[in-house]
Amino acid sequence: MTKLRSVAVAAVAGIAAFSLAACANNTATPAAQDTAAAGGDQIKLVNPDKLTVCTHLAFKPFQFKDASGKIVGYDVDLMDLVAEDLGVEQEIVDISFDQITSGSVFAAQKCDAGAAAITIREERAKAATFSQPYFDSTLALLVKTDSGITKVEDLQGKQVAVQTDTTGKDWADENADKYGYTTRVFDDMPTGTNSVLGGVTAATINDNGVLFDFAKDNPTTKVVQEFETGEQYGFNVGNDNKALAEKIDEVLDAARADGRFNDIYKKWFGVDAPTK
What is the pLDDT tens value at each position of the chain, 276 positions in all? Predict the structure, then answer.
């Protein structure tokens, strides 16, 4: 894994490099609910004029609201490329994270794809179909700069904030007895990190990309440790909509080849997308 350490803007996890597929960039525009995809399969859209994408706010810099209230971010820009290729606009739905990872949003036809910095895990891959990975991540520990905490071993007897339904919560729960801390569950990333900022909890464990970004915006906090978990993010779709996952892969490969992928990465993380 390529990983960017704690240098301000550059402190995020790296992108996994993948072989570029020699496939054409189809630009079919949907005239009905099903849109033709490569190989004759059908891409199913819940709204023929939109690529409806479910996310869970906020998870800056992947998806969050800017000062004007518009939903922006790294994931948003990548899915805009897919929408453009399909000849439609992206429409974003904010919904609970577990509904995306469980695949229930697809069964209920609430969206076509999930774009919420979703770590690909075996149980999630059974519930929904993932695209190829588009981002490498790992977990990290964020604390107040004056806390005296430098590593997870310093959390003995303290309370750690975790986000519900995340790999960070799972890791923290699995290691609580080993390191002698207790966990406190929050519904989203901002409330968990702000609990550290306000002194409610001693630390939080979450994905390194968002925690480095939070520390950059809140210099009284810092990331003091990362845990090598080998996580990768993917976009997910319903199991009956595999053609859309193939289309996402096709668009990502084309964007890597022509530089758009790197441009988007650099826009949000301040450095070029890592390569092997």
Answer: 333 333 333 333 333 333 333 333 343 334 334 444 444 479 999 999 999 999 999 999 999 999 999 999 999 999 999 999 999 999 999 999 999 999 999 999 999 999 999 999 999 999 999 999 999 999 999 999 999 999 999 999 999 999 999 999 999 999 999 999 999 999 999 999 999 999 999 999 999 999 999 999 999 999 999 998 999 999 999 999 999 999 999 999 999 999 999 999 999 988 888 775
Closest CA to 252 of 108, 76, 79: 79
The predicted model scores a pTM of 0.78
For residue 265, the surrounding DSSP H or E stretch is helix 260-269
176: three-class secondary structure by DSSP? helix
Contact 240, 176 (CB under 8 A): no
Contact 82, 247 (CB under 8 A): yes
DSSP assignment of 54-77 equals EE-S-BTTTBEE-TTS-EESHHHH
- Please, what's the largest Cα pairwise distance for the chain? 60
**Residue pointed to by tokens 């993917």:** 234
